[in-house]
Amino acid sequence: AQKITQTQPGMFVQEKEAVTLDCTYDTSDQSYGLFWYKQPSSGEMIFLIYQGSYDEQNATEGRYSLNFQKARKSANLVISASQLGDSAMYFCAMREGQGEYGNKLVFGAGTILRVKS
Amino acid sequence: ETGVTQSPTHLIKTRGQQVTLRCSSQSGHNTVSWYQQALGQGPQFIFQYYREEENGRGNFPPRFSGLQFPNYSSELNVNALELDDSALYLCASSPEGGQGGGYTFGSGTRLTVV
To answer: Using a CB-CB distance cutoff of 8 angstroms, which residues of chain B are in contact with residue A35?
Structure first.
């Protein structure tokens, strides 16, 4: 069974500082995908960044970067220059399987991030 | 391009009743999956529909069922509602294969069972 572990229930960061949200995963699949989503209080799951298991470069999307360490099975999210609007719940997720028969996402328990002014 | 739309946004039902939640997929996406998110937890996979057939199911009882229509929109039906069914129900659409970061989520339906 695949599993995502987010060990930080809550995090605080000062506005304009960088923050790292931890995520480790467990899978025996060679091909998989790792995702980070942001969920504000409204409930919508907002896609932030994706890393494929065969991608050699760490993914980056604007202020978001994914620190992918395959051997350690970790996929930490780094948010640079935090903004007040970054305050939300953040979920790490893994795509199980591949192709149209394996689109299932497995989510971690989430980390609540609070940005302080 | 339009995103994923879910309806209704909020719903209150009585234990034992039945409920239908609806989801329209993003343009160009032919795969729809449903997730249940209990308060304070991560979403849990319920099932997925691809080309109008269920092709993956999580650990949910048969009273959770669904449909996908030719336009790729989808319904989630829950019979014999229980108090523990109270949750945010999220729908996600993805293109064929779901490769890359192709999942788009709706804003969810908040179901309260009393």
So the answer is: 101, 103
